[in-house]
Design brief:
Largest sheet: 7 strands, parallel
Number of strands: 14
Structural class: alpha/beta
Bound molecules: nicotinamide-adenine-dinucleotide, uridine-5'-diphosphate-4-deoxy-4-fluoro-alpha-D-galactose
CATH superfamily of one domain: NAD(P)-binding Rossmann-like Domain
Number of helices: 11
CATH class of one domain: Alpha Beta
CATH topology of one domain: Rossmann fold
Radius of gyration: 19 Å
Strand order of the largest sheet: 3-2-1-4-5-6-11
Strand content: 15-25%
């Protein structure tokens, strides 16, 4: 059985759908601080069967030991954590506690249960403002915010653990910008409050929940002046987790860090135009000042994941927009 911490969240649910489709048994573990039980019910509708989900906190030794006692777990995919960059600056101790302490408590429970395979949700944030794109895994690691530092700290903790316990198999997956939804439209991204990220903001404008998109900065040194990112379909990302998990299950006994991205950079305006094409909806938008902390451009060199995990992203920006719209149109208020 595969444990997915934070499994009721956006990426966790999509990964669970892919893993179940591939024949894996999964158990989700979540404190529902940023997700809802309805998401798990929707996953069960996709899977066509019940999916075990345990409510608890990765920072609780009691919760973690209980989980490993009750289930025969062979590997962990560790999604649980907080992910809002701005909030991480305002509440640094909460971020270190959830993301770093939470991982330490999980790893100690794994040691007690003799589980030595983990796939960790890292982020392109570990690169900060890269010197160039496409960004390879060998690029300098200098996160520009608290959230990114929590991710880099966990990467380093896992590398130190591997030095002490070389029989562990550890995949560090550095995601670029996950967007889109399951093609069924049953599960998708459902941020709390005003979305920080571009795609959920665009889809909420499309369903009339927000009047217009503010495009942060039109004077970047990019082809159209707006920020360029590597948007990756969440189903491709989920398949990347399946590949990484299968790699750990072969017991390679090493630490591998891999970018999960498409290798393509698209600007904010590229995404808006693609979304308008996919949805047939006009997205009113206005260029405003740059957002503090944003970089002009970053996109992945994903070739290492291709070589080592046999995984490459398959879906286009049009696919991402179509599926994001399908989800938001069917669920204008998300899982509410
Ligand atoms: P999400 O918030 O939808 O999912 C995270 C889940 O973890 C939520 O269901 C939340 O309730 C749960 N959780 C948080 N703290 C917990 C705790 N202490 N104990 C138990 N459960 C807890 O976010 P997501 O987009 O699915 O991201 C999953 C992981 O991927 C996170 O670690 C995030 O930092 C990382 N990541 C996300 C992105 C992105 O853009 N979505 C990019 C890079 C990395
Ligand atoms: N943007 C807008 N208007 C908005 C929201 C975003 O113009 O309302 C622009 C941003 O300025 C940026 C682009 O859209 O140019 C993408 O912004 P996002 O907030 O969607 O994504 P980021 O690249 O800033 O960050 C995201 C996640 C991080 C993750 C990182 C990895 O929020 O958690 O991708 O590269 F680590």
């Amino acid at each position: 059985m595969i444990l997915l911490t934070g499994g009721a969240g956006y990426i966790g649910l999509h990964t669970a759908a892919v893993l179940i489709g591939a024949g894996h048994e999964v158990v989700l573990f979540d404190n529902f601080s940023n997700s809802k039980p309805l998401g798990v019910e929707r996953l069960e509708a996709i899977a066509g069967r019940p999916v075990p989900c345990v409510q608890g906190d990765v920072r609780s030794r009691q919760d973690m030991d209980g989980l490993f006692d009750q289930h025969s777990i062979s590997a962990v995919v560790h999604f649980a954590g907080l992910k809002a960059v701005g909030e991480s600056a305002e509440q640094p101790l909460r971020y270190y506690d959830n993301n770093v302490t939470g991982t330490l408590v999980l790893l100690e429970a794994m040691i007690r249960a003799e589980v030595r395979r983990i796939v960790f949700s890292s982020s392109a944030c570990v690169y900060g403002d890269p010197d160039f794109s496409p960004v390879p895994e060998s690029a300098a690691l200098r996160p520009a915010n608290t959230y990114g530092r929590t991710k880099l700290m966990v990467e380093e903790i896992l590398r130190d653990l591997h030095i002490a316990a070389p029989d562990w198999s550890i995949a560090l997956l550095r995601y670029f910008n996950p967007v889109g939804a399951h093609p069924s439209g049953l599960i998708g991204e459902d941020p709390n409050g005003i979305p920080n990220n571009l795609m959920p903001f665009v889809t909420q404008v499309a369903v009339g929940r927000r009047p217009e998109l503010r495009v942060f900065g039109g004077d970047y040194p990019t082809p159209d002046g707006t920020g360029v990112r590597d948007y990756i379909h969440v189903m491709d990302l989920a398949e990347g987790h399946r590949a990484a998990l299968d790699w750990t299950l072969c017991d390679p006994r090493e630490v591998l860090a891999a970018n999960l991205g498409t290798g393509c950079g698209y600007s904010v305006l590229d995404l808006v135009k693609a979304f308008e094409r996919a949805s047939g909806q006009a997205i009113p938008h206005r260029i405003v000042a740059r957002r503090a902390g944003d970089v002009a451009a970053n996109w992945a060199d994903p070739s290492f994941a291709g070589q080592r995990l046999g995984w490459t992203a398959q879906r286009t920006l049009d696919d991402m927009c179509r599926d994001a719209w399908n989800w938001q149109r069917q669920n204008p208020r998300g899982f509410a």
